[in-house]
Specification:
Radius of gyration: 27 Å
Helix content: 10-25%
Low-confidence stretches: none
Structural class: mainly beta
Number of helices: 10
Mean pLDDT: 97
Number of strands: 47
Shape: globular
Amino acid sequence: MLDKSWKFTKGDFPDASQPGFNDDSWQSVTVPHDWAIYGPFDEMNDVQKLAITQNLEKKAYRQTGRTGGLPYVGTGWYRRTFDVPQFHKENQCVTLLFDGAMSEARVFVNGREAIFWPYGYNSFYVDVTDFLNKDGKNNLLAVRLENREQSSRWYPGAGLYRNVHLIVTGKIHIPVWGTFINTPFVSAEYASVHLDIQFENLPEGAEIHVETAIVDMNGNQVASKSNTQKINHGRPFGQNFIVNNPHLWSPETPVLYRAETKVFYQDKLVDAYTTRFGIRDIKFIADKGFFLNGQHRNFQGVCNHHDLGPLGTAINTAALRRQLVLLKDMGCDAIRTSHNMPAPELVSLCDEMGFMMMIEPFDEWDQAKCKNGYHRFFNEWAEKDMVNMLHNYRNDPSVVIWSIGNEVPTQCKPDGYKVAEFLQDICHREDPTRPVTCGMDQVSCVLENGFAAMIDIPGFNYRTQRYSGAYDKLPQNIILGSETASTVSSRGVYKFPVEIKADARYEDHQCSSYDFEYCSWSNLPDVDFALAEDYDWTIGQFVWTGFDYLGEPSPYGVDGWPNHSSMFGIIDLAGIPKDRYYLYRSVWNKTDKTLHILPHWNWKGREGEVVPVFVYTGFPSAELFVNGKSYGKQAKNTSTLQNHYRLMWMNVVYEPGELKVVAYDKNGNIAGEEVIRTAGKPHHIELIPDRTTISADGKDLAFINVRVVDKDGNLCPDDQRLISFTAEGAGTYRAAANGDPTCLDLFHLPRMHVFNGQLTAIVQASEVPGKIVFNAEGKGLKKGTVEIITR
């Protein structure tokens, strides 16, 4: 992996591609690297004046914060040298693989352009064997990247934000993504496994001998095949296996296998290649829904953009894993990669941790959403981008459905279905094992022009009131909630009076965490919960969104600065769950009953006034007490959608003290209780790390929940003071976030204001094992200290 020893600068330097260029004054960076996340925030960064049709806007408005208010626009250069030891051009192949580069990447090796790849989200590779110095040493790799203004409608990031790999093989070899595994038959007794292998630089008509062992994750060989074939016209080399008593992949049992392949040509071992895969069966059945390994289930999914909050878009496996751990505990079992190809690390983690995936490549096709968006490249590049995406991820068992686009304007063209068919046919050609969907938001258009009728699995974004009518009209008799809810909330913010409302705006640019606010084009979560219960042909949902993300600050995009990030997330930008997390958890997590009270109980100045109390729980009923006084039992009922999924006491009169809920099971027995108390004067800082031991690999991260609490450890939910950080020893301070979309504190500086009593600080391990000592201090508070061991 080419991660260290890079030099970087903003600006355009055409001679930077040449070996003799002097980059001594450039910044030294480690890749992955996002040049724009360091800010500063500014409403003039990519300010846009336009009507956002997805938000039902009819005239152009001045949109601030749409791309996060961060300086991603411009040109940047990266340079480093690399060696290929014992290089022999005649019998070696050297490939550079880029997991993603934002954007319009031009890759130069020793002063010559090796490849141009415009789409910043896609992975691409290039054979650079002929570009290298004869001795294989001191080869200059230079990469020019350019982000244009109005090229995105969320924060895209900037730079070499994903990993770069150097791959050295023999001349005859299996290329990048050169294998394809599928499981034509799956049962509890046995599974049929088919492996296709492609080769590069193999002479036409040559015989090749291949030995492959199927190995489980404990290293046990469970099947093998050894055979010889003559290869003509570039057709793949095929092998078939039977795995007896297979362990089937599912979100509950994410069991993986490896196909370990050795390639022999003229009796010599010329390559070895490992393909990781899972054994599972997927079916989408009209009127009945989605089946995994013969079991009916609905997708309990979320959509996520690719940024990692305060880390920006620079990919980090520990940060991705932390996101997935939180989502798994919520009961989430599926991820939609909105609206672009994901990082390979995310797909790999979904394989390992048990998340089904909808992988999606595009937010626009041949018609523009953004002045400088992907439509500029679609006609020439769409097929190339699709093929790379499909080859990259078609062996991953987590991937169960492909999406070809999101809310594309093309959907309403009379012949828009032809473009959809073109993309869907590419999916069917390169991977006939999975169906295709598309996120459609213009229901009338796609029903009338045939667009929705030709998609394998019709996916609707919102428009839940149209589901039944669409089901009656469409031949597939199945509908996916490809994007749902778009409820908005700010963690720890509660607005009065408590009422259901669309597009609510307040002077503080926040949204209420009573979870009754949504956008005019969307809905509350309860609507989607009910659809999943009522109809088999609705196969589940992907909520917008699992996490808050940088950019798209609805409903404050127009005249809403400062506001740099979304409020759609179930979890905030700091990775701290909002109240809504527990609403989803109460419905989705069937193994661990949820019991959560909102709001907090610090309401100085509202004594004697009504403060409604909600409880999100997996139990059927509960009783609420304030300082021991009962406000009565509430049971879930069907009088309204909200009463079916929430317990609500709308008449609670605030008095400081103790707020307690006691939950009852279906037999009326006490099953649990939860208590929150009015916090006293802020006293000290409490530090809660997600892990106390991390890897000393220079990349691993610990996420530390920083809390301002009273002397008894109660969170002070109205505290907003500045906290400063230090990290000493075997690691460094990396970044922090507080989840406040209006806060312009820079993520990378070692200080930040808490938002409603909390924030998240991140420390990164060095490569030397030892101990990180992290300190947090705030005026008037006893400081907090925590130790993280690195191994």
